[in-house]
Sequence to fold (441 residues):
Amino acid sequence: MSAPRLAVTTSDVLPPEADCVVIGGGIVGTCAAWWLARAGQKVVLVEKGAIGGEQSSRNWGWCRQQNRDARELPLSTRSLELWERMGAEIGDSLGFRRSGLLYLSDDEAEIEGWAKWGRFARGEGVDTRMLTAEQATTRGAATGRPWKGGVWSPSDGIADPSRAAPLIAQAVERIGGHVLQSCAARGIEQAAGRVCGVVTEQGTIRTRSVVVAGGAWAGSFLHQLGLFFPQASARSSILSVAPGAQGLPDALHTAPVSVTRRADGGYTLAISGRANLDPTPGALLGARHFLPMFARRWRVLRPGGTQAWAAGVETRRRWALDRPTPMERARILDPRPDAGLIARTLARGRALLPALRDLPVQAAWGGYIDSTPDGVPVIDADIGVPGLVLAAGLSGHGFGIGPGVGHLVADMVLGRGPITETRQYRLARFGHSQWGKVSDF
Ligand SMILES: Cc1cc2nc3c(=O)[nH]c(=O)nc-3n(C[C@H](O)[C@H](O)[C@H](O)COP(=O)(O)OP(=O)(O)OC[C@H]3O[C@@H](n4cnc5c(N)ncnc54)[C@H](O)[C@@H]3O)c2cc1C
Fold:
Protein backbone atom coordinates (compact mmCIF):
# COMPACT_ATOMS: atom_id res chain seq x y z
CA MET A 1 0.00 0.00 0.00
CA SER A 2 1.20 3.52 -0.83
CA ALA A 3 1.21 6.58 1.45
CA PRO A 4 -2.20 7.15 3.06
CA ARG A 5 -3.84 10.32 1.72
CA LEU A 6 -7.21 12.00 2.08
CA ALA A 7 -8.96 12.11 -1.31
CA VAL A 8 -10.98 15.28 -1.82
CA THR A 9 -13.51 16.30 -4.45
CA THR A 10 -12.83 19.64 -6.08
CA SER A 11 -14.10 21.69 -9.02
CA ASP A 12 -14.41 20.20 -12.52
CA VAL A 13 -15.03 23.41 -14.43
CA LEU A 14 -12.02 25.25 -15.82
CA PRO A 15 -12.48 29.03 -15.42
CA PRO A 16 -11.52 30.92 -18.60
CA GLU A 17 -9.57 33.56 -16.68
CA ALA A 18 -7.95 34.21 -13.32
CA ASP A 19 -5.86 36.78 -11.47
CA CYS A 20 -3.35 34.04 -10.78
CA VAL A 21 -2.92 30.37 -11.78
CA VAL A 22 -1.01 28.09 -9.41
CA ILE A 23 0.51 24.98 -11.02
CA GLY A 24 0.86 22.07 -8.59
CA GLY A 25 -1.27 20.95 -5.65
CA GLY A 26 1.35 20.00 -3.09
CA ILE A 27 1.80 21.86 0.20
CA VAL A 28 3.48 24.80 -1.58
CA GLY A 29 0.82 25.23 -4.27
CA THR A 30 -2.14 24.81 -1.92
CA CYS A 31 -0.69 27.26 0.62
CA ALA A 32 0.11 29.81 -2.11
CA ALA A 33 -3.45 29.47 -3.44
CA TRP A 34 -4.80 29.87 0.10
CA TRP A 35 -2.93 33.13 0.80
CA LEU A 36 -3.79 34.50 -2.65
CA ALA A 37 -7.49 33.66 -2.36
CA ARG A 38 -7.51 35.09 1.16
CA ALA A 39 -6.13 38.36 -0.26
CA GLY A 40 -9.12 38.53 -2.61
CA GLN A 41 -7.42 37.21 -5.74
CA LYS A 42 -9.35 35.12 -8.23
CA VAL A 43 -7.08 32.07 -8.09
CA VAL A 44 -7.13 28.79 -9.99
CA LEU A 45 -4.96 25.87 -8.88
CA VAL A 46 -4.34 23.08 -11.38
CA GLU A 47 -2.99 19.71 -10.26
CA LYS A 48 -2.08 17.02 -12.82
CA GLY A 49 -3.02 14.17 -10.47
CA ALA A 50 -4.46 14.35 -6.96
CA ILE A 51 -3.98 17.07 -4.35
CA GLY A 52 -1.07 16.11 -2.12
CA GLY A 53 -0.42 12.97 -4.18
CA GLU A 54 3.35 13.37 -4.47
CA GLN A 55 5.92 14.52 -1.86
CA SER A 56 3.43 16.37 0.32
CA SER A 57 1.64 13.20 1.52
CA ARG A 58 4.75 11.00 1.61
CA ASN A 59 6.79 12.80 4.25
CA TRP A 60 7.28 12.44 8.00
CA GLY A 61 5.32 15.60 8.85
CA TRP A 62 8.10 17.36 10.76
CA CYS A 63 7.74 21.15 11.01
CA ARG A 64 11.02 22.25 12.44
CA GLN A 65 13.40 25.08 13.13
CA GLN A 66 15.84 22.62 14.74
CA ASN A 67 19.02 22.17 12.65
CA ARG A 68 17.72 24.44 9.85
CA ASP A 69 20.07 26.10 7.46
CA ALA A 70 20.44 29.73 8.60
CA ARG A 71 18.99 30.89 5.27
CA GLU A 72 15.70 29.13 6.03
CA LEU A 73 15.44 29.71 9.76
CA PRO A 74 13.31 32.91 9.73
CA LEU A 75 10.95 31.29 7.22
CA SER A 76 10.59 28.18 9.35
CA THR A 77 9.85 30.25 12.47
CA ARG A 78 7.15 32.20 10.58
CA SER A 79 5.78 28.97 9.13
CA LEU A 80 5.14 27.50 12.58
CA GLU A 81 2.99 30.56 13.40
CA LEU A 82 1.25 30.28 10.03
CA TRP A 83 0.45 26.58 10.59
CA GLU A 84 -1.38 27.63 13.77
CA ARG A 85 -3.15 30.49 12.00
CA MET A 86 -4.20 28.37 9.04
CA GLY A 87 -5.37 25.58 11.34
CA ALA A 88 -7.53 28.07 13.23
CA GLU A 89 -8.93 29.73 10.09
CA ILE A 90 -9.50 26.60 8.06
CA GLY A 91 -11.29 25.08 10.99
CA ASP A 92 -10.37 21.54 10.05
CA SER A 93 -7.57 19.49 11.49
CA LEU A 94 -4.34 19.97 9.57
CA GLY A 95 -2.85 17.92 12.38
CA PHE A 96 -0.36 20.62 13.36
CA ARG A 97 0.73 20.82 16.96
CA ARG A 98 3.87 21.93 18.72
CA SER A 99 4.67 18.45 19.94
CA GLY A 100 8.39 19.19 20.32
CA LEU A 101 11.08 17.19 18.52
CA LEU A 102 13.54 14.91 20.31
CA TYR A 103 17.04 14.12 19.01
CA LEU A 104 19.18 11.47 20.74
CA SER A 105 22.74 10.37 20.06
CA ASP A 106 25.84 8.58 21.32
CA ASP A 107 28.07 10.30 18.78
CA GLU A 108 30.02 13.18 20.33
CA ALA A 109 30.64 14.88 16.98
CA GLU A 110 26.91 14.85 16.25
CA ILE A 111 26.10 16.19 19.73
CA GLU A 112 28.69 18.95 19.31
CA GLY A 113 27.13 19.84 15.92
CA TRP A 114 23.74 20.29 17.60
CA ALA A 115 25.34 22.36 20.36
CA LYS A 116 27.01 24.62 17.80
CA TRP A 117 23.74 25.09 15.90
CA GLY A 118 21.97 25.77 19.22
CA ARG A 119 24.40 28.57 20.11
CA PHE A 120 23.56 30.24 16.79
CA ALA A 121 19.80 29.57 16.93
CA ARG A 122 19.27 30.75 20.50
CA GLY A 123 20.69 34.08 19.32
CA GLU A 124 17.88 34.08 16.75
CA GLY A 125 15.27 33.48 19.44
CA VAL A 126 14.75 29.74 18.89
CA ASP A 127 13.94 27.61 21.94
CA THR A 128 16.36 24.70 21.53
CA ARG A 129 17.66 22.83 24.59
CA MET A 130 20.71 20.58 24.79
CA LEU A 131 20.14 17.48 26.89
CA THR A 132 22.72 16.01 29.25
CA ALA A 133 23.21 12.23 29.20
CA GLU A 134 20.81 11.91 32.12
CA GLN A 135 18.16 14.14 30.54
CA ALA A 136 18.49 12.40 27.18
CA THR A 137 18.14 8.99 28.80
CA THR A 138 15.04 10.14 30.70
CA ARG A 139 13.39 11.67 27.62
CA GLY A 140 14.36 8.62 25.60
CA ALA A 141 13.03 6.15 28.20
CA ALA A 142 10.95 4.39 25.54
CA THR A 143 14.20 3.09 24.03
CA GLY A 144 15.09 1.35 27.32
CA ARG A 145 18.79 2.29 27.05
CA PRO A 146 21.11 5.14 28.05
CA TRP A 147 22.16 7.99 25.69
CA LYS A 148 25.17 10.30 25.73
CA GLY A 149 23.19 13.42 24.86
CA GLY A 150 20.47 14.99 22.75
CA VAL A 151 18.39 18.03 21.90
CA TRP A 152 14.81 18.94 22.72
CA SER A 153 13.11 21.62 20.61
CA PRO A 154 9.78 22.28 22.36
CA SER A 155 8.35 24.89 19.97
CA ASP A 156 8.73 22.70 16.85
CA GLY A 157 6.06 20.23 15.87
CA ILE A 158 4.39 17.91 13.42
CA ALA A 159 1.45 18.21 11.03
CA ASP A 160 -0.52 15.52 9.20
CA PRO A 161 0.89 14.90 5.70
CA SER A 162 -2.03 12.67 4.76
CA ARG A 163 -4.56 15.51 5.20
CA ALA A 164 -2.90 18.94 5.18
CA ALA A 165 -2.69 19.74 1.45
CA PRO A 166 -6.13 18.23 0.61
CA LEU A 167 -7.82 20.15 3.44
CA ILE A 168 -6.14 23.41 2.43
CA ALA A 169 -7.26 22.86 -1.18
CA GLN A 170 -10.85 22.43 -0.02
CA ALA A 171 -10.54 25.59 2.06
CA VAL A 172 -9.29 27.49 -1.01
CA GLU A 173 -12.53 26.57 -2.77
CA ARG A 174 -14.62 27.58 0.24
CA ILE A 175 -13.23 31.13 0.03
CA GLY A 176 -13.82 31.47 -3.71
CA GLY A 177 -10.82 29.85 -5.41
CA HIS A 178 -10.96 27.04 -7.97
CA VAL A 179 -9.02 23.79 -7.66
CA LEU A 180 -8.85 21.31 -10.53
CA GLN A 181 -7.40 17.81 -10.23
CA SER A 182 -6.37 15.56 -13.15
CA CYS A 183 -5.61 18.79 -14.99
CA ALA A 184 -1.98 19.20 -16.08
CA ALA A 185 -0.64 22.58 -17.10
CA ARG A 186 1.19 21.95 -20.37
CA GLY A 187 2.73 25.36 -20.88
CA ILE A 188 2.64 29.13 -20.64
CA GLU A 189 1.47 31.65 -23.23
CA GLN A 190 3.21 35.02 -23.41
CA ALA A 191 2.35 38.34 -25.04
CA ALA A 192 4.06 41.74 -24.91
CA GLY A 193 6.94 40.17 -22.98
CA ARG A 194 4.96 38.69 -20.11
CA VAL A 195 2.72 35.82 -19.11
CA CYS A 196 -0.79 36.01 -20.57
CA GLY A 197 -2.15 32.48 -20.13
CA VAL A 198 -1.72 28.89 -19.02
CA VAL A 199 -2.43 26.06 -21.46
CA THR A 200 -3.86 23.07 -19.62
CA GLU A 201 -5.07 19.73 -20.90
CA GLN A 202 -8.63 21.02 -20.40
CA GLY A 203 -8.18 24.40 -22.12
CA THR A 204 -6.48 27.75 -21.67
CA ILE A 205 -6.82 30.09 -18.67
CA ARG A 206 -6.06 33.75 -19.37
CA THR A 207 -3.99 35.28 -16.58
CA ARG A 208 -1.12 37.69 -15.91
CA SER A 209 0.37 35.73 -13.00
CA VAL A 210 1.50 32.11 -12.79
CA VAL A 211 3.10 30.24 -9.90
CA VAL A 212 5.09 27.11 -10.75
CA ALA A 213 4.89 24.91 -7.63
CA GLY A 214 5.37 21.65 -9.50
CA GLY A 215 7.84 19.90 -7.17
CA ALA A 216 9.93 17.35 -9.08
CA TRP A 217 8.37 18.46 -12.39
CA ALA A 218 9.28 22.14 -12.16
CA GLY A 219 12.62 21.82 -14.00
CA SER A 220 11.07 20.06 -17.01
CA PHE A 221 8.25 22.58 -17.14
CA LEU A 222 10.64 25.55 -17.10
CA HIS A 223 12.83 23.87 -19.71
CA GLN A 224 9.92 24.30 -22.16
CA LEU A 225 10.38 28.06 -21.70
CA GLY A 226 14.16 27.88 -22.16
CA LEU A 227 14.75 28.44 -18.44
CA PHE A 228 17.31 26.47 -16.45
CA PHE A 229 16.43 25.26 -12.96
CA PRO A 230 19.01 22.80 -11.56
CA GLN A 231 17.04 20.06 -9.87
CA ALA A 232 17.72 16.44 -8.93
CA SER A 233 15.39 13.97 -7.26
CA ALA A 234 16.35 11.29 -4.75
CA ARG A 235 14.04 8.38 -3.90
CA SER A 236 13.29 7.92 -0.20
CA SER A 237 11.79 4.75 1.26
CA ILE A 238 9.52 4.92 4.27
CA LEU A 239 6.96 2.81 6.14
CA SER A 240 4.24 3.07 8.74
CA VAL A 241 3.18 0.63 11.46
CA ALA A 242 -0.29 0.20 12.91
CA PRO A 243 -1.49 2.04 16.04
CA GLY A 244 -1.01 0.40 19.42
CA ALA A 245 2.37 1.55 20.80
CA GLN A 246 2.22 3.45 24.09
CA GLY A 247 4.67 5.88 25.68
CA LEU A 248 6.74 6.81 22.61
CA PRO A 249 7.86 10.39 21.85
CA ASP A 250 5.75 12.03 19.10
CA ALA A 251 8.84 12.75 17.00
CA LEU A 252 12.21 11.12 17.62
CA HIS A 253 15.39 11.31 15.56
CA THR A 254 18.30 8.94 16.04
CA ALA A 255 20.97 8.08 13.45
CA PRO A 256 19.75 4.47 12.99
CA VAL A 257 16.07 5.35 12.59
CA SER A 258 13.57 8.19 13.08
CA VAL A 259 10.02 7.70 14.29
CA THR A 260 6.98 10.01 14.07
CA ARG A 261 3.49 9.57 15.49
CA ARG A 262 0.80 9.63 12.80
CA ALA A 263 -2.65 11.15 13.24
CA ASP A 264 -4.24 7.66 13.46
CA GLY A 265 -1.90 6.69 16.32
CA GLY A 266 0.40 4.62 14.11
CA TYR A 267 4.07 5.53 13.57
CA THR A 268 6.11 6.47 10.50
CA LEU A 269 9.62 4.95 10.40
CA ALA A 270 12.50 6.09 8.20
CA ILE A 271 16.27 6.37 8.10
CA SER A 272 17.21 10.02 7.86
CA GLY A 273 19.03 11.03 4.70
CA ARG A 274 19.06 7.53 3.13
CA ALA A 275 17.94 7.58 -0.49
CA ASN A 276 18.44 6.06 -3.92
CA LEU A 277 19.60 8.20 -6.81
CA ASP A 278 17.61 7.23 -9.89
CA PRO A 279 19.30 8.90 -12.86
CA THR A 280 17.23 11.39 -14.88
CA PRO A 281 18.08 13.54 -17.89
CA GLY A 282 17.81 16.69 -15.78
CA ALA A 283 20.09 15.37 -13.04
CA LEU A 284 22.69 14.20 -15.58
CA LEU A 285 22.68 17.52 -17.43
CA GLY A 286 22.93 19.48 -14.20
CA ALA A 287 25.38 17.03 -12.57
CA ARG A 288 28.20 19.53 -12.18
CA HIS A 289 25.96 21.65 -9.94
CA PHE A 290 25.21 18.67 -7.71
CA LEU A 291 28.69 17.12 -7.41
CA PRO A 292 29.56 18.90 -4.13
CA MET A 293 26.28 17.76 -2.55
CA PHE A 294 26.64 14.18 -3.81
CA ALA A 295 30.26 14.13 -2.56
CA ARG A 296 29.13 15.23 0.92
CA ARG A 297 26.35 12.64 1.05
CA TRP A 298 27.96 9.67 -0.70
CA ARG A 299 27.72 7.50 2.42
CA VAL A 300 23.91 7.69 2.50
CA LEU A 301 23.06 7.88 -1.21
CA ARG A 302 22.83 4.65 -3.19
CA PRO A 303 22.61 4.22 -6.96
CA GLY A 304 19.01 3.64 -8.00
CA GLY A 305 17.29 2.27 -11.10
CA THR A 306 15.34 3.34 -14.13
CA GLN A 307 12.00 4.22 -12.45
CA ALA A 308 12.36 7.98 -12.64
CA TRP A 309 13.61 7.94 -16.21
CA ALA A 310 10.70 5.73 -17.27
CA ALA A 311 8.19 8.00 -15.50
CA GLY A 312 9.57 11.05 -17.33
CA VAL A 313 10.72 12.89 -14.18
CA GLU A 314 13.14 15.69 -15.05
CA THR A 315 12.82 14.95 -18.72
CA ARG A 316 14.52 17.43 -20.99
CA ARG A 317 12.36 16.63 -24.00
CA ARG A 318 10.35 19.46 -25.45
CA TRP A 319 6.64 18.70 -25.64
CA ALA A 320 3.79 20.08 -27.73
CA LEU A 321 0.95 21.93 -26.01
CA ASP A 322 -1.79 20.22 -28.01
CA ARG A 323 -0.87 16.65 -27.04
CA PRO A 324 -0.55 14.73 -23.75
CA THR A 325 2.73 15.50 -21.99
CA PRO A 326 4.85 13.17 -19.79
CA MET A 327 3.01 14.66 -16.79
CA GLU A 328 -0.29 13.26 -17.99
CA ARG A 329 1.24 9.80 -18.25
CA ALA A 330 2.54 10.02 -14.68
CA ARG A 331 -0.44 11.49 -12.85
CA ILE A 332 0.96 10.56 -9.46
CA LEU A 333 4.63 9.73 -8.97
CA ASP A 334 4.46 6.61 -6.83
CA PRO A 335 7.94 5.06 -6.97
CA ARG A 336 8.58 1.61 -5.56
CA PRO A 337 10.43 1.81 -2.25
CA ASP A 338 13.77 0.04 -1.84
CA ALA A 339 12.73 -3.30 -0.29
CA GLY A 340 16.08 -3.81 1.45
CA LEU A 341 15.93 -0.35 2.99
CA ILE A 342 12.36 -0.92 4.18
CA ALA A 343 13.36 -4.20 5.87
CA ARG A 344 16.36 -2.50 7.54
CA THR A 345 14.23 0.44 8.70
CA LEU A 346 11.67 -1.88 10.29
CA ALA A 347 14.34 -3.98 11.99
CA ARG A 348 16.06 -0.87 13.38
CA GLY A 349 12.75 0.63 14.55
CA ARG A 350 11.81 -2.55 16.40
CA ALA A 351 15.29 -2.81 17.92
CA LEU A 352 15.23 0.80 19.10
CA LEU A 353 11.69 0.85 20.47
CA PRO A 354 10.43 -2.36 22.06
CA ALA A 355 6.83 -1.01 21.93
CA LEU A 356 6.93 -1.34 18.12
CA ARG A 357 7.95 -5.01 18.13
CA ASP A 358 4.56 -6.61 17.72
CA LEU A 359 2.93 -4.00 15.50
CA PRO A 360 2.29 -4.95 11.88
CA VAL A 361 3.42 -2.82 8.95
CA GLN A 362 0.53 -0.72 7.64
CA ALA A 363 2.12 0.62 4.46
CA ALA A 364 5.46 1.19 2.75
CA TRP A 365 6.10 3.73 0.03
CA GLY A 366 8.67 5.66 -1.96
CA GLY A 367 8.83 9.38 -2.58
CA TYR A 368 10.99 11.54 -4.81
CA ILE A 369 12.56 14.48 -3.00
CA ASP A 370 13.33 17.32 -5.40
CA SER A 371 16.47 19.14 -4.42
CA THR A 372 18.50 22.14 -5.50
CA PRO A 373 22.33 22.00 -5.49
CA ASP A 374 22.59 23.90 -2.18
CA GLY A 375 19.58 22.29 -0.49
CA VAL A 376 17.68 25.59 -0.23
CA PRO A 377 14.51 26.23 -2.26
CA VAL A 378 14.03 28.65 -5.12
CA ILE A 379 11.25 31.16 -4.42
CA ASP A 380 11.64 33.84 -7.03
CA ALA A 381 9.57 36.20 -9.18
CA ASP A 382 12.53 37.30 -11.30
CA ILE A 383 13.39 34.21 -13.34
CA GLY A 384 13.27 35.64 -16.84
CA VAL A 385 9.55 35.70 -17.70
CA PRO A 386 7.61 38.60 -16.13
CA GLY A 387 4.53 37.29 -14.35
CA LEU A 388 6.07 33.89 -13.56
CA VAL A 389 6.98 32.92 -9.98
CA LEU A 390 8.94 29.75 -9.21
CA ALA A 391 8.58 27.97 -5.84
CA ALA A 392 10.24 24.55 -5.99
CA GLY A 393 13.33 22.61 -4.95
CA LEU A 394 12.19 22.36 -1.32
CA SER A 395 15.03 19.84 -0.89
CA GLY A 396 13.52 17.39 1.58
CA HIS A 397 12.31 19.87 4.20
CA GLY A 398 9.54 21.81 2.48
CA PHE A 399 6.47 20.41 4.20
CA GLY A 400 7.10 22.27 7.45
CA ILE A 401 7.79 25.57 5.70
CA GLY A 402 4.94 25.17 3.17
CA PRO A 403 2.71 27.82 4.80
CA GLY A 404 5.56 30.36 4.82
CA VAL A 405 6.65 29.58 1.25
CA GLY A 406 3.02 29.96 0.12
CA HIS A 407 2.80 33.31 1.90
CA LEU A 408 6.06 34.53 0.30
CA VAL A 409 4.76 33.50 -3.12
CA ALA A 410 1.55 35.47 -2.52
CA ASP A 411 3.65 38.45 -1.38
CA MET A 412 5.57 38.29 -4.67
CA VAL A 413 2.46 37.94 -6.84
CA LEU A 414 0.76 40.84 -5.04
CA GLY A 415 3.91 42.99 -4.98
CA ARG A 416 3.63 43.55 -1.24
CA GLY A 417 6.38 43.47 1.40
CA PRO A 418 7.58 39.87 1.92
CA ILE A 419 7.21 38.14 5.30
CA THR A 420 10.93 37.33 5.31
CA GLU A 421 14.08 38.19 3.39
CA THR A 422 14.03 36.58 -0.08
CA ARG A 423 17.50 37.16 -1.55
CA GLN A 424 18.76 33.70 -0.55
CA TYR A 425 15.98 32.02 -2.56
CA ARG A 426 16.85 33.55 -5.94
CA LEU A 427 17.35 31.29 -8.96
CA ALA A 428 20.24 33.48 -10.16
CA ARG A 429 22.48 32.13 -7.34
CA PHE A 430 23.09 29.09 -9.56
CA GLY A 431 24.60 31.24 -12.30
CA HIS A 432 22.98 31.81 -15.63
CA SER A 433 19.21 31.53 -15.63
CA GLN A 434 18.75 31.22 -19.38
CA TRP A 435 19.71 27.74 -20.56
CA GLY A 436 19.28 27.73 -24.31
CA LYS A 437 22.53 25.83 -24.97
CA VAL A 438 21.67 22.19 -24.42
CA SER A 439 20.08 20.26 -27.25
CA ASP A 440 16.90 18.40 -26.42
CA PHE A 441 17.03 14.78 -25.33
C1 LIG B 1 10.05 10.49 2.49
C2 LIG B 1 10.00 11.97 2.65
C3 LIG B 1 10.12 12.54 3.94
C4 LIG B 1 10.05 13.93 4.11
N1 LIG B 1 9.99 14.44 5.37
C5 LIG B 1 9.78 15.77 5.55
C6 LIG B 1 9.55 16.32 6.84
O1 LIG B 1 9.46 15.59 7.84
N2 LIG B 1 9.39 17.65 6.96
C7 LIG B 1 9.46 18.48 5.89
O2 LIG B 1 9.37 19.70 6.07
N3 LIG B 1 9.61 17.98 4.63
C8 LIG B 1 9.76 16.66 4.43
N4 LIG B 1 9.90 16.14 3.18
C9 LIG B 1 9.93 17.06 2.03
C10 LIG B 1 8.55 17.58 1.68
O3 LIG B 1 7.64 16.51 1.56
C11 LIG B 1 8.63 18.38 0.38
O4 LIG B 1 9.68 19.33 0.46
C12 LIG B 1 7.34 19.12 0.10
O5 LIG B 1 6.22 18.29 0.24
C13 LIG B 1 7.39 19.70 -1.31
O6 LIG B 1 6.14 20.26 -1.59
P1 LIG B 1 5.80 20.77 -3.05
O7 LIG B 1 4.44 21.33 -2.99
O8 LIG B 1 6.93 21.64 -3.53
O9 LIG B 1 5.90 19.46 -3.97
P2 LIG B 1 4.90 18.24 -4.18
O10 LIG B 1 4.24 17.83 -2.94
O11 LIG B 1 5.68 17.19 -4.90
O12 LIG B 1 3.78 18.83 -5.11
C14 LIG B 1 3.99 19.20 -6.46
C15 LIG B 1 2.71 18.90 -7.20
O13 LIG B 1 2.74 19.52 -8.47
C16 LIG B 1 2.05 18.69 -9.38
N5 LIG B 1 2.48 19.10 -10.72
C17 LIG B 1 3.72 19.12 -11.21
N6 LIG B 1 3.75 19.62 -12.45
C18 LIG B 1 2.48 19.95 -12.76
C19 LIG B 1 1.85 20.51 -13.92
N7 LIG B 1 2.57 20.86 -14.99
N8 LIG B 1 0.52 20.69 -13.90
C20 LIG B 1 -0.22 20.36 -12.81
N9 LIG B 1 0.32 19.80 -11.69
C21 LIG B 1 1.65 19.62 -11.67
C22 LIG B 1 2.45 17.29 -8.96
O14 LIG B 1 1.53 16.32 -9.41
C23 LIG B 1 2.50 17.42 -7.44
O15 LIG B 1 1.27 17.02 -6.84
C24 LIG B 1 9.96 14.77 2.96
C25 LIG B 1 9.86 14.21 1.68
C26 LIG B 1 9.86 12.82 1.52
C27 LIG B 1 9.69 12.24 0.14
Q: What stands out?
A: Residues 20-99+155-430 form a domain with the FAD/NAD(P)-binding domain fold (CATH 3.50.50.60). Residues 433-441 have pLDDT under 50 and may be disordered. Residues 204 and 318 are 19 Å apart (CA to CA).
